[in-house]
Amino acid sequence: MRTLYLECNMGAAGDMLTAALAELTDAEDFIKRVNDAGIPDVIVTAEKTQKCGVTGTHIRVTVHGEEENEHMHEHHHHHSGIADVEGIIRSLNVSDAVKDNAIAVYNLIAEAESCVHNTDMEHIHFHEVGTMDAIADVVGVCMLMEELSPEKVVCSPVNVGGGTVKCAHGVLPVPAPATARILRDIPIYGSGNTELCTPTGAALLRHFVTEFAPMPAMKIKSVGYGMGSKDFETANCVRAFLGDSGDEGEVRELRCNIDDMTGEQIGFAVETLAENGALDVFTVPVYMKKNRPGILLTCLCKAEDRDKMVELIFRHTSTIGMREYAVKRHTLEREAVTVNTSHGAVRAKKSTGYGVTRTKPEYEDMANIARENNISVSDIKIKD
Questions:
Q1: How do residues 120-131 score in pLDDT, each as one tens digit?
Q2: 113 and 239 share a domain?
Q3: Strand-pair partners of 225
Q4: How many domains does the structure of the chain reveal?
Q5: Residue 158 has pLDDT above 70, yes or no
Q6: Mean pLDDT calculated for residue range 97-105
Q7: How far are the Cα atoms of 29, 37, 224 from residue 58, in angstroms, in the given order?
Q8: Is there a single domain that holds both residue 117 and residue 231?
Q9: Is 1 exposed, middle or buried (CB count within 10 Å of its CB: 0-12, 13-18, 19+)?
Q10: 20 to 30 A from 303, CA-CA: which of 42, 206, 263, 345?
């Protein structure tokens, strides 16, 4: 599985994410394409720089020939509303998918700002994240994600920094309120005395990342270093790893013990989980506290479906807690085929891999033949 892993030990900002992803592609071609996108008054350039002896890329965005720094939260351009930003993005020379993703990112920022300021999204003015340089960062990341097309995006817990940050409203704690809102339910931590994760960086992570976890087992094809503008004792960069996490992907196993539900209620919960994408759901009889008979419910699901399955388990069972395990699943390759039998052709599933080949006829087709010919299923022979 084509996997992108983002290491945000020094936080995340739009320019750092853009630079890290650009190093995974033809950076020169990307710079040309983003400049040809038509972002008003913007010129994007890339330059090699070093942090703590590590070489990476720093993205510079100039507006009317002046460079702005989102980390400082000191923008002097006119304020733009969400409708203005959407209008600019819709006018750009990029794909519809890039436009949709960029607007979705800005809606995350607008929702967070509206909540912090207790007003409607339409009344939010992007004095800190809505200027052209930030639009360039958001659109650039969306263009690069479209080009890289990862099947899975995993991100480390995010270092948000610490201390305070100066903005148009005054001095605010780190993470800034809007950033904290965007990062809710995402694992974060703080260190140092400066802002490391900006609202734009937080919104880009929230939109594109499918899972926040340690780096998965993967065969790395390329690594990108996106450098920030400040210098610290630790290399100020976002690292992006692009590789293959293998066909035998990691899945999640969710387990909970239940002793106060009827068989019908448990059956409905099992059916609901299966209908909503669980890879497998099963129950096993167990003995619980004081030797009470109960049921162990186990749900296997894709990592990206974990949150949905957790919610469904809590909604449809009486459990008040569950256990989660990361497990590897080894599967055979499967394809739909047609096989001939002694009584005609039927559909079948063919499974191959690990030196094994198996073909299993579809039960319903076999059962229909048995009914029509008044024979048992075992009387139907598969022809070579």
A1: 766 556 544 447
A2: yes
A3: 239
A4: 3
A5: yes
A6: 95
A7: 16, 20, 11
A8: yes
A9: middle
A10: 263
Same domain, 62 and 179: yes
User: Which residue type does 382 have?
Assistant: I
Question: How far apart are the C-alpha atoms of 71 and 226, rounded to whole Å?
Answer: 15
- How far apart (Å, rounded) are the C-alpha atoms in residues 181 and 271? 35
Domain boundary among 226, 244, 262: 244
Q: Which of 194, 227, 244 is the last residue of a domain?
A: 244
Q: Are residues 24 and 38 in the same domain?
A: yes
The β-bridge partners of 40 are none
Separation between Cα atoms, residue 228 and residue 242, nearest integer Å: 20
Cα–Cα distance measured from residue 324 to residue 322, given in angstroms and rounded to the nearest whole number? 7
Distance CA 242, CA 4 (A): 5
Whole-angstrom distance, CA of residue 303 vs CA of residue 349:
26
CA distance 11 to 158: 6
Q: Which domain holds residue 124?
A: 2-244
List, in order, residues 6 or more apart from 363 with CB less than 8 Å away. 377
pLDDT digits (tens, 9 = 90+) for 108-151: 998 988 887 777 766 556 544 447 888 999 999 999 999 999 98
In the structure encoding, which two tokens stand for residue 296, read together?
A: 């162990």
> Is the distance from CB of 12 to CB of 19 less than 8 angstroms?
no
- Confirm whether 384 is domain-assigned: no
Decide the pairing of beta strands 54-63 and 66-67: antiparallel
